[in-house]
Amino acid sequence: MIKVCVYAIAKNEIKFAKRWLDSVKVADYVCVLDTGSTDGTYEFFKDAGIIVKQKKYKTFRFDVARNDSMKLIPADADVCVCVDIDEFFEPGWIDTLRQNWKAGVGRARYRYTWNFNPDGSEGIVFFADKIHKNNAFKWVYPVHEVLKETTKQEYETITLPSIQLNHRADETKSRSNYLPLLELSVKENPLDDRNVHYLGREYYFHGEYSKAIEMLKNHLTLPTANWKDERCASLRYIARCYEQLGDVKSQEEYLLKAMLETNYIREPYFELALLYFKQENYLKAAVTLNEMFKITTRYFNYMSSPVCWGSLPYDYLSLCYYYLGDYKNATIAVDEAIKLSDEPRLKENKQLFINEFNNNK
After folding, report:
1. In what order do the strands lie in the sheet with 87-89?
2. Residues 260, 275, 316, 296: what is their CA dihedral angle, to the nearest 10 degrees?
């Protein structure tokens, strides 16, 4: 039977430590590198009897810390599973992993819920791949780090959708170091399209819209920027920047470009429909939303917005029809929204649409 080691880095994660350990202690080994906790996290793991070490960094970067955490992994471990302390597995994960891991496999992908909506339903869901063969990979990049093979051997990647990892982050924890680490990452690898995209996005999050536009446009020019979904995301972030700068014409232009880039995902259609709705151009908004609904396959990646698959698009469509005086289609659209949400306002709107329809017969 293969031996499995779960490993992590930690700093001031005491509120999540027990939940995390309960979900991973079924592994043969559990290793934690504490990077300077002051809230009892290090002591908790030490008392739990797992493999734990504390190392403080003068200058912190995630790839270095994760590579140092890998040094704690016992030599006889076959499979390594990197799980952050604010994450936890649903039961049964290790049995699935052991049943499917075989000679020649180097990586395993699994279902990852990155966040949850206020009502408890899943938010962003995609397949993560931080399960890997021992002594065959290292971490690279100062932040948003990824695994890179260290051998010339080609390994198979398997997908195990029945393995479910949940992420419930501490929203109060500062992530202010992400921006300087991303700037460092791009400085070290200016042609790395992934990190250029991330840096542009981070500038947007920080309200540095001109810098974001410049960096995201740079991303689109890179010869390796071939993943259409990420290119579409860059175009949509550029549009959002122009919105913040008050340039509605450029906002519309880049949303249309995003639709052309990926006519198989809903996000650019929905954002464009919202733009038209705010402009009170309800006809264009309705047409755009109806085109969006023709897309029936949801691709699970970190850029897939659950909002586009919930009640809100039908809610907006119903309002578009209402303002256009088409009360019959407004009722049909709001019925679709009600199927996806129990928000009382939707039922109130439905009654309003029915009354308007009856009054205008």
Report:
1. 51-54, 29-34, 4-10, 79-82, 125-133, 105-113, 156-167, 87-89
2. 10
Please write the tens of the pLDDT for every residue from 201-220: 999 999 999 999 999 999 99
Tokens 């290090």, residue?
42
Report the chain's mean pLDDT, rounded to a whole number.
Answer: 96
Whole-number Å distance between alpha carbons of 264 and 331:
27
* Dihedral sign from CA coordinates of 262, 145, 195, 247: positive
- Across-strand partners of 34? 10, 54
Nearest one of 146, 162, 156 to 97, comparing CA atoms = 162
d(CA 206, CA 186): 17
The single residue listed with the structure tokens 């430590």 is 17
| Beta strands 146-149; 137-140: pairing state | antiparallel
Cα-flanking dihedrals φ and ψ of residue 74, to 5°? Answer: -60, 145
* DSSP type of residue 157: E
- Strand, helix or coil at 137? strand
The secondary structure of 284-335, three-state, reads HHHHHHHHHHCCCCCCCCCCCCHHHHCCHHHHHHHHHHHHCCCHHHHHHHHH
The rounded distance, in Å, linking the Cα atoms of 247 and 254 is 11
Residue 305's nearest CA partner among 274, 276, 350 is: 274
113-140 pLDDT tens trace: 999 988 888 999 999 999 999 999 999 9
Polymer length of the chain:
361
Helix (H, G, I), strand (E, B) or coil at 345: helix
- Containing H/E element for 87? strand 87-89
361 membership: H or E segment, kind and range = none
The pair of three-digit structure tokens given for residue 323, joined into one six-digit string: 């303002």
Distance from the Cα of residue 54 to its chain's centroid: 29
Distance, CA of 119 to CA of 306 (rounded, Å): 13
Please state the pTM of the whole predicted model: 0.90
Residue tagged 């008392």 (tokens): 47
Give dist(CA 296, CA 266) in Å, integer: 9
Q: Is the pLDDT of residue 361 over 90?
A: no
